[in-house]
Here is the input.
Amino acid sequence: MIAKRIIPCLDVRDGRVVKGVNFEGLRDVSSPVALGSYYSEAGADELVFYDITASAEGRRLFTDILREVASTIFIPLTVGGGINSLDDFDRVLKCGADKVSVNSGAIRDPGLIGEAARRYGSQCVVLSADVKRVNGEYHVFARGGREDTGMEAIQWIVRGVENGAGEIVLNSIDTDGVKRGFDLEMLKAVSERVNVPVIASGGAGCIEDFITLFKTLPRVDAGLAASIFHFGEVKISELKRALKAEGIPVRITEG
Amino acid sequence: MIAVIDYGVGNLFSLVSSLRHIGQTVLVTGDPEELKKADRLILPGVGAFGDAAKKLRETGLGDALIEEAHRGKPVLGICLGMQLLMTKSFEFGEHEGLDLIPGEVRALSEVVDPALKIPHIGWNPLTLCRETALFKYVRNGDSVYFVHSYHGTRCEKDTLALTEYSAPVTAAIGRGNVAGCQFHPEKSGRVGLNILQAFAETEGALC
Here is the structure.
């Protein structure tokens, strides 16, 4: 039985980890290398590393830091942010990423997912979708949640899987940073339609939110969060123990 | 010194980082002659069996690896590298492996519940089949990280560990100084590092 995964997410800009609340008002948290190896030892099942740097200069810095993070953690690593071409896939895979997450890049070039899946395998391609309710419909947003593409989200995600995405990160903009629980309604709608792993993102505030997630939606494979882990509001070891006590399969590591 | 065999199949970054992390000197090489100099050999690999087996044959690395294994040098295959140690594979046709450990590589879909996702990806606990030097730091039930669509069959006598994915799935095999892990020790946290550590420090038989 495959364990449900707990995934801390590191948003990196100018070489530092930051976390936005509703994607704005970013706060500096810590060093990505220190946080990455802390999580790797603390029982995280995977790390997600997002490059939110805009300039080419920043991208080079990110690549250096990525290599450093990847060489000090020994759990799977997913990298996203600024992935627009197969060259970008190549660049981050060579720095030690196991999976590459595409978002705006796939919106600009819908062929990207298919090309990447053919070259590197579906298990390597993650479609990350930022989704928000607009007039009763789920819409896909681009550019870090700033731009409504007008596209219907479920169709977009189903098509992404058909084209070769091997995993979905569903980030609800409506619940992101609010800390009142994951967006169960949106996650249900997506997880019923795809047969690849779905990672829930946006809204976790406490241990109970993860228990509710996995109990309500057994088809969801993983829970992702950032600030609650970075600031120690939820400790991964305590979270895993609580999930295990509820009968949810998790990987327990002991120090 | 541990030689990581580089035959153009897959990314070696994490494996090399993890070996360095546990204090090993690593040589990444595609030269059959270099395998003689190393104390231990690791055969990594991801992708399709047929292509990989062909590359091992064409480069002479396959024959060199078999020769060193017969001399008693410790050998560890990882993921596709484990599968290549076996007799043959039925992935897209029928292909011969290195035949260091008897057995056949077959699709997981032959045994796994069709409702489950394939590839089998994620953390899954090990059931150890017997005591071995390779897994001396592993406890029954420790989880490791898998990414695969095929697995070893007809290798019951040489199976070191199993995992469960609606059916028993071969997680590790071994015979004397040659062993293989279907999972990725370099991605399996502390448990995986400890397996690499045991491989690096074991003199004589791994299992």
Notes: Chain A touches chain B through 28 residues (CB under 8 Å).
